[in-house]
Amino acid sequence: MRVFVTGASGHLGSAIVPELIAAGHDVTGLARSGTAAAAVTALGAAVHRGDLDDLDGIAKAATDSDGVIHLAFNHEQMRSGDFAAAVATDLAVVHALGDALAGTGKPLVGTSGTLALANLGRTGTEEDAAAPGPRVDAENAVIGFAERGVRSSVVRVPPITHSTLDRHGFARVLIAIAKQAGVAGYPGDGTNRWPAGHTLDVGRLYRLALEAAPAGTRWHAVGDEGIPMREIAQSIGDHLGVPAASIPDDQLGAHFGFLAMLIALDNPTSNLVTRRILGWEPVHPGLIADFDHGDYFTAP
Q: H-helix or E-strand containing 151?
């Protein structure tokens, strides 16, 4: 299968592209810079030069492919404070891809996050559809393309996706905050739960979704279905040699920065349907084991 991948040089792409190539697929990755193009080439994929604003170029690349995986999102724009613009760009790209593939029966695998199901008061499942809102609108648009003759599906990625490939994710951010503050913080009593997934397991799920996901389906790339935030903070503190402590509600912004709006969310997430239907099984270390044996506290 000829597969077009946006975000091919990023964290997830660095696992997904080799996974696809190893399974015999031909991959073309979107690259907005020479550095990104070199990274895509090093992974063994062809390069399509362009960025997320080049909707015509993205649509043409999708039309020329047998399937598409959409990973790219303007995280720099989001972290700079212009989240609305990043969300609008992503939604425009999703519609360009869906329009290009309409009526073809080709697969389109989109990307969302399990945090869309936070604070349900129970464990979120693959059957749960989140309420409309930022980023969720893109997820729902991808699912809706099933009614337009696209074999569309969405992989929901956990807030912490970890491995030696992770250089800028939330695990790195939490560790950096703890180093700077001298304390590994958690909100309240720290019993709120975050799911996590190993990057290589996540990469395999994207391939399975591309190859076999029925149209209009959602999948959960979680290995750890819900780790208490206090346990995550304690592990970080133990490795850094700093205490783990509760951060008062009125100090969350000062301590966690842009993560303050997310850190207290409770997000236990099931992977039961994903495992049963797609045959996906996480085989790589969970988050705490990765903290113990990975490079999170040894790499610069």
A: strand 151-157
